[in-house]
Amino acid sequence: MSTSARLPELFGSMVFNEATMKERLSSPAFKAWKKSVTDGTSLDSYTAGEIAEAMKQWAVEHGATHYTHWFQPMTGVTAEKHDSFITPAEGGKVIMEFSGKELVRGEPDASSFPSGGLRATFEARGYTAWDPTSPAFIKEGSLCIPTVFFSYSGHALDKKTPLLKSMDAVSKQALRILRLFGDTTTRRVIPQVGAEQEYFLIDKKLFNERRDLRYAGRTLFGAKPPRGQELEDHYFGAIKPRVAAYMKDLDETLWALGVLSKTKHNEVAPSQHEMAPIFSDANTACDTNQLAMELMKKVADRHDLVCLLHEKPFAGVNGSGKHDNWSLGTDTGVNLFKPGKTPSQNAQFLLFLAAFIKGVDEYADFLRATVAFPGNDHRLGAQEAPPAVVSIFLGDELEAVVEAIISGTVYRDAGKQTLKIGVDVLPAIPQDNTDRNRTSPMAFTGNKFEFRMLGSSQSVSGPNIALNTIMAEELEQFADILEKSTDFANDLNALIRRTLMEHKRVIFNGNGYDDAWIREAESRGLPNLTSTADALDIYTAPKNVALFQKHGIYTQAEMDARAAIHKENYRAVIGIEAKTMVDMIRRDILPAVSAYAGALTERHAGKESLGAASRYERETVKKLAALEDQLYAACEKLEADLAAVPADAERAMHFSHDMLIPDMNAARAAADALEEITDRSFWPFPTYEDLLFSV
Ligand code: ADP
Ligand code: MG
């Protein structure tokens, strides 16, 4: 049967989703589960037992032999420890068992996961607990149960716990606002997320020939090929057969696991592609993005390809990001960022919009910090989209609306209609905002915001925790004011106007790549944190800690731990890259160049003895020797600085940024110049040309 005919049956076939639960659980158990999802109530042990039994039966019917609590430690990837369902039974036999207790709680050996100091070794225990709001699924013969992960003392050791808390926080405050607008039916407001995922695909054999790709996930050397992405003919271009086969396999794999993979296309750079899913609640979206990243790599392997999720695998061609599309939706299906049709709906829309603008302005530094890690430093603020300055793009029409509100004038849309919010005359809100600005880090795209600063390899949890919590804070402030109001319409208008006036500086509709904008942003007082080293310093700034503490998302200790892990990671990543570079220079590049220079020298001598011209040999040897010297010196400097990295993580991060990165740039410049004049057959590993046009 064709895939399209099988698709409805294939989709979600490996997921213990709501439909499957409804089919397989007793009505009271199903209702209890449903209630626990909507109200956050915990399940009694009897119900948990019934669900576990049904889950196990379903899993075994679908070929599973093991189960695992699937969790997201602070490394940004997922972790799993597999136990089989097997329990010994009488007569030397086994039965397949899985209890409610095993479903609900686990105790993986946690000592090897980073805790940033949250877990002293004497209490190395970590616990996992079932998250009933994200469905279990079967992957490679194991029933995977999404869980949270926390320490003996109750500190979150993962990325899911704070995400769930932030979803509750924003729901609670958004409901207060909705009630003020007369909404009595919504029971929950749910952040909606769609994460567009960029990636590169290269040939596996070539990948294996480069140690930088194997150890660092990116090329540390490589002269630019004569042809890169200048022609822009790859973007949305026809998909090559090998890539098409990969994408088909990937889609089918993702569909079976309930990942709503929707679009696939080629990106700007050669070998670069994108996978976009249909959006879902933030928790499921984070889980499925983790799953998608893992499967993208595994499926690639089946096709003798390697999927690179690094933000900048190749210098000089576009890097890979992840667009985090974010909005707030009600459990009744209303998108709170969709401009409304009636005055009252518009007032509500403008209030949410104002809250968002205020929040992004006040916590721009923190949002920047959530996307700060070494791989992303190659993109943000480094001649590539988007810049490191956080600003909001609204589009011409919506910006005109904001201007009109601030100036108190009446905005008229193209149809010359005015529109009302509350009682005051206020602008019509454009319903269709198709205007796109690809350079903005945070763009309003009609009914959602697109946060474009995320790196392709990162978990989307951190940025969404920040967006949810920031929004919770602003909505809480607004609700506090408006709940006390005796003249709602007037106070509402005044609040919207005042907020827009005070936070207008964060709105920018122009070209974000332009140097003039960076200067302008600085004069507006917007932070420009160009590197991870700068951005991580403000992660634990008092105002940021206060925000997350107030809403019960992170404790001070949990934030300190996260900052510590990121600083340690920075040192580790740059250290690995630097060591790999030294190794490749000493054992691959210098020997190859020297061999080539030796061959040329011999040929030169031979030609001289015959009285033949040998300018090419003579001059090339001289150039090679000069660059070789330069590379040798750069390598020695890099090695010396590597030996001098301070022990303290904070100092090591700054040292790596200030010393090792410039050293690495110098070494690379010399090596790439050498590549350009070295005989292809002497070059010790595949070139950019080989890699980028290999598939
Ligand atoms: P593009 O940015 O390429 O123009 P789309 O507008 O089609 O793409 O949407 C990009 C992503 O945004 C998709 O993953 C889509 O499911 C998601 N998305 C669409 N609407 C919403 C919404 N209201 N909230 C969150 N994400 C959304
Ligand atoms: Mg996009």
Sum this structure up briefly.
With 695 residues, the protein is α+β, with helices and mostly antiparallel strands. It has 23 helices and 20 strands. α9 crosses α10 (282-302), α11 packs across α15 and α21 (615-643) packs antiparallel against α22.
Would you write up a description of this structure?
There is one protein chain. This protein has 23 helices and 20 strands. The protein has 695 residues and is an alpha+beta fold. The radius of gyration is 28 Å and the shape is globular. 47% of the residues are buried. Mean pLDDT is 90; it is low at 414-425. Bound molecules: adenosine-5'-diphosphate (ADP) and magnesium ion. Adenosine-5'-diphosphate binds next to strand 10, strand 12 and strand 15.
Properties at a glance:
Ubiquitin-like (UB roll), Four Helix Bundle (Hemerythrin (Met), subunit A), 9-stranded mixed beta sheet, Creatine Kinase, Chain A, domain 2, 23 helices, 3 domains, globular, 7-stranded mixed beta sheet, 20 strands, binds magnesium ion, binds adenosine-5'-diphosphate, alpha+beta, 695 residues
Q: Helices, strands, pairings?
A:
Blueprint: H1 3-10, E1 15-16, H2 18-24, H3 27-39, H4 45-61, E2 66-70, E3 82-84, E4 86-89, E5 93-96, H5 100-104, E6 105-106, E7 126-130, E8 136-139, E9 142-151, H6 160-180, E10 189-203, H7 204-208, H8 211-216, H9 241-256, E11 261-266, E12 272-277, E13 280-281, H10 282-302, E14 305-308, E15 321-330, H11 343-362, H12 364-369, H13 374-377, E16 392-393, H14 396-407, E17 419-421, E18 424-426, E19 442-444, E20 449-455, H15 461-483, H16 488-503, H17 515-523, H18 532-539, H19 542-550, H20 556-609, H21 615-643, H22 649-677, H23 688-692
Parallel strand pairs: 2-9, 16-19
Antiparallel strand pairs: 1-8, 2-3, 4-5, 6-7, 7-9, 8-9, 10-12, 10-13, 10-14, 10-15, 11-12, 15-20, 17-18, 19-20
Helix pairs in contact: 3-4, 6-15, 9-10, 11-15, 11-16, 18-20, 20-21, 20-22, 21-22
The chain binds adenosine-5'-diphosphate and magnesium ion.
